[in-house]
From TrEMBL:
Gene Ontology molecular function: ATP binding; single-stranded DNA binding
Organism annotation: Pseudolactococcus plantarum
GO annotation, biological process: DNA replication; DNA synthesis involved in DNA repair; double-strand break repair; SOS response
HAMAP family xrefs: RecF
Protein name: DNA replication and repair protein RecF
RecF/RecN/SMC N-terminal domain span: 3-352
PROSITE patterns: RECF_1, RECF_2
Amino acid sequence: MIISDLSLHHFRNYQELHLDLDPNLNIFVGQNAQGKTNIAESIFFLALTRSHRTHTDKDLITWGEKEMRVSAHVLKKNMTIPLEVSLTTKGRIAKANHLKENRLADYIGNLNVIMFAPEDLAIIKGAPSIRRRFMDIEIGQIYPVYLHDLMSYNKTLKERNSYLKFDLHKIDLHFLDVLDDQLVSYGTKVMAHRQKFVDNLLTISTKLHDKLSHGKEKLVITYAQNVKQDFAEALRNARQNDLFRKQTSVGPHRDDLQFVVNDIDIANFGSQGQQRTTALSIKLAEIDLVFQETGEYPILLLDDVMSELDNQRQLDLLSLVIGKTQTFITTTTLDHLKHLPENLTVFQVSDGEILKQD
């Protein structure tokens, strides 16, 4: 999978931009707040129709403008597919091969991206909601049906929680049974997808972590499923508590992941080095997992992360991805980048202007 060119229209600090891209390695160099991270964000947005940095759509639109658009041509299996995602006064619109998708969930999967940024350490040591979001993003790119099941689950969960807030004498227990049946139907599918994802991720990441730690560390990833028994039974057992607390206390909306290195829970007791290596192992494992499931390697976005890695980790990272994925690196300087291959393109970024370096 290769992005041959990228066009931005009123995206962040870019009024108009068109870039022809290197099929191997693209490096965007510039000081902070010049627009280099906006390039990585635009590719992420094109793939997932959302930003990894903000939940507010208007933040993505150039100041003073009302609409924005990101488009590109993507080479997949010897086919070139034009993709476009825009934010307009009518909402978010996604097109693949010039055809508008009625549901965004049907569009996602046309372009697979793996993002690695400094904040990804939060996957290891952050709140459970961050790890659930990580699973949702990655599984959704590989298995589009997962997004349908997840959206249906979340819609039913919201409806159930709203109903639980009624006065007790107004609650119809038979209607609550109907909501429970729907929640179980969708939630069981969500948990099955997550378990499969974690099992596959563990298989690949264990080998990568062993290589990155030079045989010194063993990584174990556990899917900490909130439901420890039959989901329907768990809801029945929790009903009185749910009625009292007026919220749904069991289900995949409370799932988590646990990362253990050499029998140590590294979220709470691991060193920063162990946390970084684990985050790197997971991101690299995702690349192979996407290929395993789709037959295409994803796009790799390394946003201001190389300076966080020592020379050995940089070397390990680049040796594992160069020649395999089209890679985008954003950085403030080339000075700390070692062992770069010859087949690359460097772009200088300054105040929303991008120049290709000869």
